[in-house]
Specification:
Elements lengths: L2 E6 L4 H12 L6 E7 L3 E7 L2 H10 L7 E7 L14 E2 L5 E9 L2 H8 L14 H15 L4 H12 L4 E9 L6 E6 L4 E4 L4 E4 L11 E4 L4 E6 L2 E5 L10 E3 L15 H7 L1 H12 L4 H5 L3 H6 L2 E6 L1 H15 L5 E6 H4 L10 E7 L5 H12 L3 E6 L5 H5 L2 E4 L12 H24 L5 H22 L1 H11 L4 E6 L2 H17 L2 E6 L16 E5 L3 H15 L4 E7 L5 H6 L2 E5 L7 H19 L18
Parallel strand pairs: 15-16, 15-17, 17-18, 18-19, 20-21, 20-22, 22-23, 23-24
Antiparallel strand pairs: 1-4, 1-10, 2-3, 2-4, 5-6, 6-7, 7-8, 8-12, 9-10, 9-11, 11-14, 12-13
Helix pairs in contact: 3-4, 4-5, 7-14, 7-15, 10-14, 10-17, 15-20, 16-20, 17-20
Bound molecules: 6-O-phosphono-alpha-D-glucopyranose.
Length: 619
């Protein structure tokens, strides 16, 4: 949460910083600000979107500074306001910084370390501002104007901080340098030719460089146009590994779509083909580094994620439980640590995360590693913290997902988990001299998945009409059983996230234990019915709603359609027939479009829903 960006080089810094901020807005959009260094530091901030800041900058005289830092905020301490916006400056405006994270002990620091500072020097209610005053204080104490003395002041300050940070700091004593530090929040450094960049995530700077260095935990760097020097907190030089990021520039643009979300929904066939091209081969497990010897020792798999990633985990849960000798559970990352989980070297922990930076998921990973379990990360962002700290990584290769509501990343996560499951199943079957029939059947149909998603997408206009009909609904139920129930959870989450409509996902069989009391002619129930063995049961539950005058919107495969269904449902969207474990993915695409259109009709800000952020780096 919160996005930071920085530039030092030979180009106009404002343009680069503003372009970076725009790309980072998914991380927070309560306020934005920029600090440019020429002879002095000039800071401009504004409440609201990055666009507001741009309007202010457009009216100002052209500032041709070649170095600066900028920030887009997701408020934690202090309401969204001009004062609370970053960058924050020392009382004499000599030092200025932007911060992503939380200084948990800021009140303590203020009372103990800054008691000499007059109250009117502290301008905001934020935790961050305390940090800049602290650095300023130690820089005074050190009494020497040198890079080393400034670095010492930063280290002395950060040694006192409890909490998390990705920080970018400028000081008018160092006209071309940006000092950065990280602990538990992401920070990437982009390497250019006579210019260097920094950002919370690489999408913000991909327009300028593809050579990205991911600053490690508890490290500091000094960035100037020609150099990037990295240190630990003892000022010992540390090596850096540069990653080449080959995402397309178009991937971080809307390319004609109204929103990133719609673009990302329509990208799903491409994402699937891409993933299967890379991963549908006999070397899959070998490429990840998962060995048969190790797999045979595992007795339990923990599957962990947050939000949509957690739903992707649920999709694989029962399949893993199918594997002989193996038990599995799926947990919210935010709950995992408090459930006293039994973790040891015979447990495999799978962490699923689009961003690879979600604080709760990262904390779960660290707990697992501390307890000697191996961690397999299913991650989209190359080089992210989770991918770097895990023992094994499956990259979902979905390309950058910008919209806050996750769509293509979910599909890619489910696909990755299915391919993982099939490979583990196959290897264990081989071990018992058997063939994995299931593998052959599903593998064949996986090749039809992108085509069948395209067919679902072709029904966009029809889904839009259904959305129009129900966009005034105040309450909705999403129901299904088994895998369909998980898609109900995901569909309902999408609607809440972007349309701000209340809906509840229910296991269809549970409806009669309470919620059915709410059903009347005003309540829409969306039924997801793709699993053959339980289809009759879910349809009965929907009929029970119908009998109480409820409204029914049904998503089913073509093969299920019959007169009885036609009579019961007010609206039906048909998906193509395919292997049962793949059908829910198609149904989910329909629900993504449904949520999108409802939100669009209600004129919501689809890519930047209120109160949310894409990358949740606070616990
Ligand atoms: C946020 C996003 C969700 C996402 C969740 C987990 O809540 O708004 O879309 O599913 O975080 O994010 P991750 O990056 O770990 O998948």
């Amino acid at each position: 949460m919160c996005g930071i960006v920085g530039y030092t080089g030979f180009q106009n810094a404002t343009e680069i910083l503003m372009s970076g901020l725009k790309k980072l807005e998914y991380r927070g959009y309560d306020s934005a600000g920029i600090a440019l260094l020429t002879d002095n530091i000039n800071t401009i901030k504004s409440q609201g979107r990055v666009e507001n800041l741009k309007n202010i900058l457009d009216k100002k005289q052209n500032n041709d500074s070649k170095i600066g830092i900028a920030h887009t905020r997701w408020a934690t301490h202090g309401n969204p306001s001009d004062y609370n916006s970053h960058p924050h400056s020392s009382h004499d405006c000599k030092i200025c910084l932007v911060h992503n994270g939380i200084v948990e002990n800021y009140l303590d620091l203020k009372n103990k370390e800054l008691s000499d500072l007059s109250e009117d020097c502290i301008k905001s209610q934020t935790d961050t501002e305390i940090l800049v005053h602290l650095i300023r204080k130690f820089y005074d104490v050190n009494r020497e104007i040198s890079e080393e003395s400034f670095l010492d002041s930063i280290i002395m300050s950060l040694n006192k901080v409890k909490g998390s940070y990705a920080l970018a700091i400028i000081c008018d004593d160092f006209k071309d340098k940006i000092f950065v530090a990280r602990k538990d929040n992401p920070l990437v450094i982009g390497s250019g030719n006579k210019e260097n960049f920094l950002a919370s995530d690489s999408t913000a700077i991909l327009n300028y460089t593809r050579e990205i260095y991911f600053l490690e935990e508890n490290k500091i760097a000094i960035i100037s146009p020609n150099e990037i020097n990295t240190y630990d907190f003892n000022k010992k030089n540390v090596n850096k590994k540069i990653f080449h990021i080959d995402w397309n520039i178009e991937d971080v643009d809307k390319t004609g779509y109204d929103s990133f979300m719609l673009k990302e929904i329509f990208e799903q066939p491409k994402v699937i083909d891409n993933f299967l091209n890379i991963n549908l081969n006999s070397d899959f497990l070998k490429n990840i580094g998962l060995e048969k010897k190790y797999l045979k020792k595992i007795n339990h798999i923990y599957i962990i994620g947050c939000g949509t990633a957690y739903h992707a985990g649920l999709m694989i849960l029962n399949l893993f439980r199918n594997i002989e000798g193996l038990s599995a559970s799926c947990e919210f990352a935010s709950e995992f640590r408090y459930e006293n989980p039994v973790i040891d070297k015979n447990k495999l922990v799978i962490i699923i995360s689009q961003s690879g930076e979600t604080a709760d998921s990262l904390a779960a990973l660290r707990l697992a590693k501390k307890s000697k379990a191996k961690v397999l990360a299913v991650v989209n962002s190359v080089g992210s913290s989770i991918s770097r700290e895990a023992d094994y990584v499956i990259y979902t290769n979905a390309g950058p997902e910008i919209a806050v509501a996750s769509t293509k990343a979910f599909t890619a996560q489910v696909l990755a988990l299915y391919v993982l499951y099939l490979n583990i199943k196959k290897i264990l079957a081989k071990e018992n001299d058997g063939k994995c029939k299931e593998f052959e059947l599903i593998e064949k149909d996986l090749k039809n998945l992108s085509r069948n998603i395209r067919s679902a997408l072709k029904q966009n206009n029809k889904i839009k009409k259904v959305a129009k009909k129900y966009s005034n609904s105040k309450n909705m139920f999403y129901i299904g059983r088994n895998l369909d129930y998980i898609i109900a959870l995901e569909g309902s989450l999408k609607l809440k996230e972007i349309a701000y409509l209340f809906s509840q996902a229910y296991a269809a069989g549970e409806l009669k234990h309470g919620p059915i009391a709410l059903i009347d002619e005003n309540i829409l129930t969306i039924g997801i019915v793709t699993q053959d063995k339980i289809r009759g049961k879910t349809l009965s539950n929907l009929k029970e709603c119908k009998a109480r005058n409820g409204i029914i919107f049904l998503i089913i495969p073509e093969k299920f359609l019959d007169d009885e269904i036609l009579e019961m449902a007010d609206d039906i969207i048909l998906i193509k027939d395919m292997h049962e474990i793949l059908l829910p993915i198609l149904a989910n695409v329909v629900l993504q479009l449904f949520a999108y259109h409802v939100a669009n009709i209600l004129e919501r800000d689809i890519d930047k829903p209120k109160n949310l952020a894409k990358s949740v780096t606070v616990e």
